[in-house]
Structure formats: structure tokens, C-alpha cells
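Notes from hallway chat w/ T.B., transcribed later so I don't forget. T.B. wanted the structure written out for a chain they're using in a teaching module, and asked if we could keep both sequence and C-alpha cells in one place. Agreed to drop them here.
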Amino acid sequence: MATMADVARSAGVSVATVSHVLNGTRPVLPHTRQAVLDAVDQLGYTPNTLARSLVTSRTRSIGLAVSAISNPYFTEILQGVEAGALEHGYSLLIADPHDDPEHERKVVQLLHERRVDGMIVAPSANPRELVAYLGRHGVPAVFLDRLVDAPADGTPAFDQVCAESAEPTARLVGHLAELGHRRIALVAGRPGLSTTRERIAGYRHGLAASGLPHDERLLVHGDSESVGAERATAALLSLAAPPTALVTANNAMTIGALRALRDRGLSVPEDMALCCFDDFAWADLFSPRLTAVAQPSREIGAQAVRVLLERLASPDRPARTLRLPCSFVHRTSCGCPQGPVRSEHPEQPEKFEKFEKPEKFGKSEKGTAS
């Protein structure tokens, strides 16, 4: 079995240089780095990760704690995290906290005991014990998708990476209002989540900016799950004056809402206009095709890795919150006669700007009727 010394002799460099190339601990000239990598490939050298971790106190591993891994949104985030980790020579240890605060702390503790270098966590609605554990043990961590409230002094304790939520939701409401809807309902997510709070705020902002009153009966919680959204939508449909348009706050709840509408014999958009937060691979296959907010899921995951590695390199720098823009994917479930067909990677997705007042959606940028 080849050793690091064998690689050094073959590449004509010192053992220290080989170590710097493999561990990324110091810049090395490009031609020298390539010579080392060629020698590694020719000799079939495999670094002894365990021995290296004993020397450096680093395991080159990242812990990822994300609930509902089966959800397409989090699956894409996982792909982004994995790609970012592999790009920098890190492996992943994955755990599902099941959105349960007690279980969340336990799985984070287990990941910590596996000596991961840092963690990426999508926190639950009540992350108090999680935050306390990470702070008490000084674990480098990045919160993903869902934000955690800053301490009383206003200084964030941890890095955070998420998508914009309020403004895109306001845009969906504004679009439906522009189409003539006056009773627009929101099926919101689990109470306590930052994404739920922000999308509710966006919903209310969109109503106000469109000159519509806010009727509390039209705001229901689907608890971020299909079954909960099905019950919540059924409750909306039972109102004496039900909504004519519906915004669902994540992809799982979109499925539940559609099931409730089907069970009532209602069709979209003829009987109920529908816009949803979260685009997913088969949204364009529904009939009608779903008008949606698309989050940059993979980029969120990749950015979380970059932010964590920056934290590992500079432990004392101030924590920051990074928000990524969403895209408006215009299809036909909103009731428009046509919408542009979206490929898997749209060439020019429409980015959300700061929502100040309802934008006129009668024509797209290219003049196509909405």
C-alpha cells in the first residue's frame, strides 16, 4: 500500500507539500499540486482519514440534520449539500430530527459525538434545546431554510442560509388579486417556523398592497403536511363564503389542498385558482400546470456548505444570514389562459423584487397575455 512518502518521492516534493495539497492547509503552486495529484492517482494512494483526524482534530465530515428528507424540496437541498461537501473533500453524516425538538437535540448530540467538524441543521419550530446544545459545546453550525430568532442583543449566534419567503408570497397574492380575486386564502405551515411567519407576513402584505381586507377565517394552518393541508382546505371550503383563490405555503400542502378540492368535485382553476410556494419536478405535469414560487434548493444547500467552511476557517468572525432570491414560475393553475412552460432549469427565471405595491400582471415582459 502506497504511503504519503511514496507520493512525495514520485512527485518530487516534500511530504509536507503532499499534506498541504491533500488537506488544503496551504496554497500550493498549480503545477506542483497537479504533480502530487498525478502521483496519488498513479500509486493508488488512499489517505488514512482516521490517523489524519487524530493529528488534526478534524474528521473532514459534516453533520446534516434535516427533517422530511423524502420531501422533494429537502431532497434537492440534500443534493446541494452533498455536492458542496464532496467538492471540498468532506463526507456527510445525515440524520432526520422529525421536526421534534427533543429528538432534534438527540440526533445533533449523536452527530457531535461522531466528531463531525460542523453541522448544517434545519431547525424545528422550537429549537431552544438545539441552540443551547450547540452554544454550550461550541459546535460550528449553519441553520438551513428556517431561521432562528436572534438573542436579545440582536446579534445572531449562528450563520443562517435560507430563501426569501415574504416577498414571493406577497407576489402570489398580488397576482391573484390582479386577476380579480377578492377572497384569497392561505394554507400556512407549522406554527413557530420562521418560514410560516414570513409567508403569513407576505400574505398579509400582499392583501394590503392590493387593497383587500384581511379575513382571519381565510388564514388556516396545514402544519406543513399533506394531511393537515387537506383538513385545512376542507375547512375553507365549508365557510359560508369560501375563497375563490388559494395560496399553499409548501409543496406537501399543495398536494393536500388538491386532494381536498378533488374530494369536493372542484376543479382548478375553474372553481378555485391556485398558486403554491415550492416548485417541484412534476408540477408542470399536473393538469392544470401549477403556478409556483421556485426556491433555489440546491444552491441553498451548496451555500450552507460554503458558509460552514468559512466558519471553520474563521471561527471568530460575526455570524451572518444569507437570503437567496426565488423565481416566479407562471403556469395555468392561477387561472391565466397560458403561462410559459418551465424547463428543469429555466434560462431566465423571473426574480422577485422588493414588493411595495401590486404589480400589473396583465402582460409579461415579452407582452404575452397572462
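Follow-up for T.B.: The first helix runs from residue 4 to 11. Might be a good example for the class.
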